[in-house]
Amino acid sequence: MNKLFDLASLTKPLVTAPLALEHLDLDSDRRRALGFSKRPEPLTVRQLLSHSSGLPPWLPFTGEPLAEQLDRGFPAGAHPLLRLAEVGQSTYSDLNFRLLGDLLTQQTGRPFAELGAMTSGLSPAPWEEATTAIHDGPDVAAWRLAEPALAIPPRTPFLPHDANARAGMAGHAGFAATPEQMRQCLEIWIAREYPGRMAVDTARSADGTRWGLSLQRSLLGRGRFGQLLARIPLGFVGVQVLVADGTALARELPAEDPPGEPSRWWMHFGYTGPALFVRPEDGACICLLTHRLGPDGALLDATQLQARRWAMLEAFCTSHLH
Fold it and tell me: pLDDT for 6-26, tens place per residue?
């Protein structure tokens, strides 16, 4: 088993959001700085952190300014990643964090990867040790629809799986960690009280998902992570890093009730497998480090991956309550 885990979108809450909270004003209008002169609404860091800016979920990284790329147009509706969004309503988008990466570079005058490594202790790509390779994801199919004349960046085991990250898109991915690195990063993250600053109800998606500043609220209800984690008493956990070998498949995910009331826990997931759960009021933090491959080497779909995460958390909760 590889000791280095590609964190994918866990970069958002562990690297990008803390840097934004330290270096950027949350509510200043950033249209001019980011080249969005044609946008009628203000564009703020708070919107970007809460995925409520109205940007589509995804676009290929071409190297051009995002505002110019959007002005050229894209085949909205041709793929789930290529769809329109509404300002003020959360639509999870890598593009929000691409812009945060741009703003942080403007503000500090330092490369995003250098800045993130210095503050988080995590490893920026390219890595000396290869992470576990997984198959191309939906971003590659969307890339071919949106930019058919633009070559998809070549794969290498020393660069992130995500096609945009391979092309150098900062802000949303590009970091990896060993279990010990992750534990140290989370201890610093908790000690600096970032979860409490990020766990602020800010916007909601069309399906009722609640977002703070780079963290999603974990809701109560049967089959939901908030309900499972609510079994852990306050002051009982601390920082925990749970590592799975990524080979065995979990049983089916429990049937979900409709979303209930918000729990005390917040969370974020990474496409490559890892997951993060945090309870800001007592600093409880559980990170799952796992890969997105099943026992036959096939890429797990979202439901299978959620089932694996559930099984890991359920085993942990059971062992700590008896």
Answer: 999 999 999 999 999 999 999
Q: Indicate the number of domains in the chain.
A: 2
Count of C-beta atoms within a 10 Å radius of residue 49: 29
pLDDT band at 246 (very low <50, low <70, confident <90, very high): low
Structural domain contains residue 47: yes
pTM for the model: 0.95
Say whether 230 sits in a helix, a strand or coil: coil
Q: How confident is the model at residue 267 (pLDDT cuts 50, 70, 90)?
A: very high
Cβ–Cβ under 8 Å, residues 57 and 92: yes
Domain around 25: 7-154
Tell me the HSE value of 172 on the side-chain side, using a 13 A CA sphere. Answer: 28
- Smallest Cα–Cα separation from 122: which of 195, 178, 193? 178
What does the CA dihedral 77, 80, 81, 86 come to, rounded to 10 degrees? Answer: 70
- Looking at residue 264, the DSSP 8-state letter turns out to be E
Q: Does one domain contain both 147 and 210?
A: no
In this structure, the strands spanning 239-243 and 284-289 are parallel
Structure tokens at 275: 């997951």
Query: Is 51 among the domain residues?
Result: yes
Residue 21 DSSP class: H
CA separation for the pair 130, 153 (Å, rounded)? 17
